[in-house]
Design brief:
The complex is a heterodimer of chains A (133) and B (174). With 133 residues, chain A is an alpha+beta fold. Chain A contains three helices and eight strands; from the N terminus they run ββββαααββββ. Chain B contains seven helices and four strands; from the N terminus they run βααββαβαααα. Classes of the chains: A alpha+beta (133), B alpha+beta (174).
Chain lengths: 133, 174
Amino acid sequence: TVGAVARDAAGHLAAATSTGGMTAKSPGRVGDTPLIGAGTFADNATCAVSGTGHGEVFIRWCAASEIAARMRHAGQSLAQAADHVVMHDLALNDGSGGLIAVDADGNLSLPFNCEGMYRGTVTQDGRFDTRIH
Amino acid sequence: MTKFSLAVHGGAGTIRKSSLTPALEAEYHAALRRALEAGHDVLAGHGTAIDAVTAAVCALEDEPLFNAGRGAVFTSEGKQEMDAAIMDGTTRAAGAVGGIFGPRNPIRAARAVMDATDHVMLIGPNALNVARDAGLPFEDTDYFFTQARWDALQSTLAMRAEGKEDDDPARRHG
């Protein structure tokens, strides 16, 4: 899976995710990637999210929109909400993987509960950061 | 406060340090950097978040290194299928495609669904028609083939034939 989330200078958020899948998947199997609210979600008032991991679990736990719901209803920060979903909801239910997220202020969160996630960030100051493990 | 910001991912799972040579690791970092630069260029030019994530994901899709790119994960029948989704947080407009094959950049097919139709998700021939109507480039199977993904398919099928448990996150994630 690959994906991106962004907050632009006008404060707008967006998310995009493409072509996840398990090796030798069943023909016609669709994971969380194209399901809005599971692997991809964006709402200017809360956050934009793109996920990567065990798709069926991301779908069952509505992973991406759950982060936005926690921010909206429980007043959690992006980091708190994203960490809870990845490290608690997904991790405790066989949902290995991770996600990238950005909130309305441009704060970024990239939690993962597996060995690594190919990931990178850049902000307005031009600071590029790429990591694997 | 940060004025604009961007994050990308190229997948997650079991990333074995032992098989990740310094040269290959450098290639991954460079590929991630190219995706960041594609999105950053949009945002630095006062572009929108939706255009930035489109550009960044296109750059990732173009990379054979990542499993969702030119080496899209194979089905058990040895065929490739593509899924993609995009969402605009300003309007909650969204577009998605599932189970298709052909567009060079599936994310642009999802974007076409969002921009050109009243629907959120399209599958099958009509999803491809929307992509064609949007003028998107298509590729054949050779373009999307990578040896690494083919070898992973054969390995997984062999394990299944032997009745071995297949719970490796790297396989489960594609």
